[in-house]
UniProtKB/TrEMBL annotation:
It comes from Candidatus Methanocrinis alkalitolerans. This is Universal stress protein. The keyword Nucleotide-binding does not apply. Residues 50-77 form a coiled coil. Keywords: Coiled coil.
C-alpha cells in the first residue's frame, strides 16, 4: 500500500528516530530521504548554500545506510530553498516522486516541551494531500532518552470512525495495509437532545461497529468495539492511552467537512495533542 515513502529529515535526534520505524511499515520498498536547506539568515537575499549542501549530502548518506540496512531502496535529496515555507517543498517533492506516504516526526529541531506539534509537521498535516504518518516519542525522565512506539507499529491500531464516506474509505485502506494484527474500532457520540436520544445513537453506533468488526475478523484480524460519548478528539486520545495502541489510524476528514479543508478539526486535534503515532489517511476529494 505504501511502496514509496518520503521522509523529511532535519538531522535532529527526533527525525533520526523516525528512520528506525520506516522498515517496519508494511509494503515499503523505496524511501525518498529529503533535507530542505534554508539560509542561516532568513533575511538574506544573496545566499551561497555550497558548504551547507555538502554537509547535508554527507548526513543524508549516513542516514541512507540505516535505511539500506533494512533492505530499502533509498533516494537522497538535498534541496536548497532561499525563501518560502518548508512544507511547500515537501509537498512538491511528494508530487515529483509520486510518494504514497509522508513519514515524519511530530517535532524537529529546537522543539519546546510544551509544543506538541512542530510547525512543519502542522503545515504538512493541514495542507498536504498525501497520507501522513506522524511519529511520536515520549520523553523519558531527564529528557535525554527517547521512548519509541514504532516497534511493530501495526500491532494494535485504534481506528475512529463517524461512519462518513471518508471514514469508510479509511477503513478500506486500513484493511488493505497488511501486517495489521488487532484493531480497536471507536465511534464517539457527541450530541443528543435527551438521554434517550444519546442512548439510541450509542446503540446504533455499536451495531454498525459490530458489522465492521466482523469484516476484520473474517480477514483474520482481531477486532473489538468501543462507543464513547463527549468530545471526539479527547475520547480518541484517552482511549489510545487506555488501550496502549501502537497507532491511531483515521481519516483526514469526517462528517461536515468543507471542500476547501484538507484536514478536519478532529484529525488535527488528535495529531496535535495525542501521544501516540497518528496515521492520517487522506480521503479522495469530493466530486
Amino acid at each position: 500500500m505504501f511502496e514509496t515513502v518520503l521522509v523529511p529529515t532535519d538531522f535532529s535526534k527526533y527525525s533520526n528516530k523516525v528512520l528506525e520505524c520506516v522498515g517496519g511499515l508494511p509494503g515499503v520498498k523505496k524511501v525518498v530521504l529529503l533535507n530542505v536547506i534554508g539560509p542561516a539568515d532568513p533575511l538574506a537575499r544573496i545566499w551561497d548554500p555550497g558548504a551547507r549542501l555538502k554537509e547535508a549530502k554527507k548526513k543524508l548518506a549516513d542516514q541512507a545506510k540505516l535505511l539500506e540496512a533494512q533492505g530499502l531502496e533509498v533516494e537522497q535529496r538535498a534541496e536548497p530553498m532561499l525563501e518560502g515555507e518548508i512544507f511547500r517543498k515537501i509537498q512538491a517533492v511528494s508530487e515529483e516522486e509520486g510518494v504514497d506516504l509522508v513519514v515524519m516526526g511530530a517535532r524537529g529541531k529546537g522543539f519546546l516541551q510544551n509544543i506538541f506539534l512542530g510547525n512543519v509537521a502542522k503545515n504538512v498535516l493541514r495542507y498536504g494531500d498525501r497520507h501522513l504518518l506522524l511519529m511520536r516519542y515520549k520523553m523519558l525522565e531527564g529528557g535525554i532518552d527517547l521512548e519509541e512506539h514504532c516497534a511493530m507499529i501495526t500491532t494494535k491500531i485504534l481506528c475512529p470512525t463517524d461512519f462518513s464516506e471518508p471514514s469508510e474509505e479509511a477503513i478500506r485502506l486500513l484493511k488493505g495495509m497488511g501486517g495489521v494484527r488487532e484493531v480497536v474500532l471507536l465511534n464517539v457520540v457527541f450530541s443528543g437532545e435527551s438521554q434517550d436520544e444519546v442512548d439510541a445513537k450509542m446503540k446504533e453506533a455499536k451495531e454498525k461497529l459490530t458489522v465492521i468488526k466482523e469484516e476484520f475478523e473474517r480477514d483474520g484480524i482481531k477486532a473489538s468495539v468501543r462507543v464513547g460519548m463527549g468530545d471526539p478528539a479527547e475520547e480518541i486520545i484517552t482511549l489510545a492511552e487506555d488501550e496502549e495502541v501502537s497507532l491511531v489510524a483515521m481519516s483526514s476528514r469526517g462528517k461536515g467537512w468543507m471542500k476547501q479543508l484538507l484536514v478536519g478539526s478532529v484529525a488535527y486535534e488528535v495529531s496535535k495533542n495525542g501521544t501516540r503515532p497518528v496515521l492520517v489517511l487522506r480521503a479522495r476529494k469530493a466530486s
